[in-house]
Amino acid sequence: MRFDVIIKKKALKNIPALPENVRERFYVLVKRLESMGTTGGNIFHNFSKLGENEYHCHLTYHYVACWRHEKKTITIEVYYVGSREDAPY
Predict the structure, then answer these.
(1) How far is CA 51 from the centre of its chain?
(2) Residue 67's closest CA among 39, 45, 86?
(3) How many angstroms separate the most distant Cα atoms in the chain?
(4) Are the C-beta atoms of residues 82 and 9 closer than 8 Å to each other?
(5) What's the confidence (pLDDT) of residue 21?
(6) 26 neighbors 15 (Cβ within 8 angstroms)
(7) Alpha-carbon distances of 20 from 8, 28, 38, 77, 79, rounded to whole Å
(8) Which of 6, 14, 31, 44 could form a disulfide with 82 if both were Cys (CB 3.0 to 4.6 A apart)?
(9) Using CA atoms, how far apart are residues 17 and 32, in angstroms rounded to an integer?
(10) Could you give all domains of the chain from N- to C-terminal order, each with its CATH number?
(11) Sign of the C-alpha dihedral, residues 25, 26, 28, 33?
(12) Prediction pTM value
């Protein structure tokens, strides 16, 4: 099953400011979310569920990505990518 990954505007604005290696890891995450769903982040450190429909993982020690997936849908929404200090959790 293929999932639709939507990157919210706030997350899109943060991407150009990320170091190149973090951007590359983020794009790997997006591809895995598209192909595997919410468990696509399990190759990254500290992959975990934040709430009923929300997940996060560390792209590197200092950078995280957060996404949500409503059950019974094929849409995954990435709502944050950036420093873990500013993460919305």
Answers:
(1) 14
(2) 39
(3) 35
(4) no
(5) 96
(6) yes
(7) 20, 13, 24, 22, 20
(8) 14
(9) 22
(10) 4-86 (3.30.2310.20)
(11) positive
(12) 0.91
Confidence of residue 40 (pLDDT cuts 50, 70, 90): confident
Nearest residue to 53 via CA among 75, 25, 84, 31: 75
Residue 41: pLDDT over 80: no
Helices (H), strands (E): how many in the chain?
A: 2, 5
Number of neighbours of residue 47 by Cβ within 10 angstroms:
17
CA distance 21 to 18: 8
Reduce the secondary structure of 57-84 to three states and give it as a string. Answer: EECCCCEEEEEEECCCCCEEEEEEEEEH
Residue 60: what residue type? Answer: T
CB contact burial 70-80 (16+ within 10 A = b; e otherwise): eeeeeebbbbb
